[in-house]
Design a protein that fits this description.
There is one protein chain. By secondary structure, the protein is of the alpha/beta class. The chain has 2 domains: 168 residues, Rossmann fold; 176 residues, Dehydroquinate synthase-like, alpha domain (Up-down Bundle), CATH 1.20.1090.10. The protein has 13 helices and 11 strands. The strands form 3 sheets. Strands 1-2-9-6-5-3-4 form a 7-stranded mixed sheet. Strands 7-8 form a two-stranded antiparallel sheet. A two-stranded antiparallel ribbon has the order 10-11. Strand 3, helix 2 and strand 4 form a beta-alpha-beta unit. It is globular. It starts with a strand and ends with a helix. 45% of the residues are buried.
Length: 349
């Protein structure tokens, strides 16, 4: 299957196939690649390093392997990439490959946009979360101690290659991590996907998995094409992420995965919206039931006071307050701006 992201300035394909990993060499030759810088993490390389070496044997390539986890998205690791690429004599005619999950994609993309004012790169996402969300849309970033993704920009990959077979090697917790972003897609824009998730039996079969990946990608594609730089409607993709990012920062990026934090964030903001009369009674309970069925957490046990220092720095803040993405009902969402002085009260309900 092939989807295309069509933007005003560029377009790029998303290829979704099983066994796509065995086509890497052929596709790189078709793109005219010679020198390749590949970035991955130790977990992915331990699983697929031998395969990737075989696919790259006819190319001159440089390999950088980082420790897995959100803490890899650091300024220090950016410097590692820049120095490695300089030593490799990487140019803007060469290619960078992000081979891993969302962390590797974010870090590699942010390094690629800045190195020599932009080198092309390909996303090969290996986790469910990165396949349905972070590998497309062009958001790339690194973290600061003060918060997640505070240093970043928009830089789209040349292509995205999604091999669904990679998901077979995921630990259960990592797979569920990605399911949070699938649930989000259903909540904000695809009622049929939301219902499909309710009706499904877990663990999901391969055909069902393929369908939910496709549906989640179509949601993301539509919003990115209509609002590339997140100035308007694309902001609804942040459902659950304001609280979620604060929880990740509070937990030093190790207590919860991104998807777990987003799941709890979706419940928190829906409960607050329900308490403030913005959504129907029972919406929160229905969402919690779905997340429990999948095996995702819904309550953090963290007091709001503990999160406020990160919430007030959130990227979605405006001069007046913070814009929250809220699910009106499954498949429908809207943006609601909460004034700074009212944020604590709103989220306390």
């Amino acid at each position: 299957m092939k989807l295309t992201i069509n933007l005003a300035t560029a377009s790029y394909p998303i290829i979704i196939e099983s066994a796509l990993r065995y086509q890497i060499k052929t596709r790189l030759i078709q793109m005219g690649c010679n020198k390749i810088a590949i970035v991955t993490d130790a977990t992915v390389w331990a699983l697929y390093g031998e395969l990737m070496r075989a696919e790259l044997e006819d190319f001159e390539y440089e390999l950088t392997v980082f420790s897995p986890g959100e803490n890899a998205k650091s300024h220090e690791n950016l410097m590692v990439l820049y120095r490695n690429w300089l030593d490799f004599d990487l140019s803007r005619k060469d290619m960078v490959i992000a081979f891993g999950g969302g962390v590797i994609g974010d870090l590699t993309g942010y390094a690629a946009v800045n190195f020599m004012r932009g080198v092309p790169f390909i996303q090969i996402p290996t986790t469910l979360l990165s396949q349905v969300d972070s590998s497309i849309g062009g958001k790339v970033a690194v973290n600061l101690p003060e918060g997640k993704n505070l240093i970043g920009t928009f830089y789209h990959p040349n292509e995205v290659w999604i091999d669904t077979d990679f998901l077979q090697s995921l630990p259960e917790r990592v797979f569920k991590d990605g399911m949070a972003e699938v649930v989000k897609a259903g909540c904000i824009m695809d009622r049929n996907l939301y219902q499909l998730l309710i009706d499904s039996e877990y663990p999901l079969g391969s055909s069902m998995l393929y369908e939910i990946i496709e549906r989640a990608l179509i949601v993301k594609k539509h919003l990115v094409e209509n609002d590339e730089k997140e100035m308007g409607v694309r902001k609804i993709l942040n459902f659950g992420h304001t609280i979620g990012h604060a929880l990740e920062s509070y937990g030093a990026y190790s207590r919860w995965t991104h998807g777990e934090a987003v799941a709890m964030g979706m419940v928190w903001v829906t409960k607050s919206a329900e308490g403030n009369g913005l959504v129907q009674k029972g919406t929160t309970d229905d969402l919690k039931a779905l997340l429990h069925k999948i095996g995702l957490p819904t309550e953090s046990g963290v007091a709001l006071e503990e999160l406020m220092q990160w919430l007030v720095r959130d990227k979605k803040k405006t001069s007046r307050g913070i814009e929250l993405s809220i699910m009106h009902q499954p498949g429908e969402s809207f943006l609601h701006e909460v004034p700074k002085e009212d944020l604590y009260r709103f989220l306390s309900v």
